[in-house]
Write the structure tokens for this entry.
Amino acid sequence: MHETHEMKTRIRGHLTQHRDRYERQIIDLLTQLVALPTVNAGPDRLAECPGQKVPGEETRIVDALLPEFKKLGVPCAVHAAHPARANLLATLGQGGQTLAVGCHTDIVPPGDGWDSDPYEVTLRDGMLYGRGVLDNKGPLVSTIAAMWLLQECAVPLAGRFQLAAIASEEH
């Protein structure tokens, strides 16, 4: 119990001390991912998807994340049923039980009603706006941020913490 309390205290202190850096890293990575149009629309709507040749093209997200995980020293496996539609599995820790967090990397077409470019993250009234910020690129980046924190604080895991970045959820 005492070790758990010390670990929580250490993590809170680290997060407090490095809050601005984490915020910048989160917004920078989210901005990078939102700029990648991974619209999973049927072939009949592909013309609405800027620069896409096939629906989704989630491999763009995987390609952007691989260097991030390499920097972290987190092993990754890439699985793809189609070269443009890759999935990524990043794993922290080993043995024991696994806590897996699944986040999809495709988005629906932006639709009408945007006050700004949907592929650019915009900060307005303390909120971030952009296609995928809420569903599901934001949660993806939040999970990666948790991995950054666990790695930087050298948290000893009793098992594995996995992030599954999954293609083709939207269609």
Observations:
- Residues 66 and 76 are 8 Å apart (CA to CA).
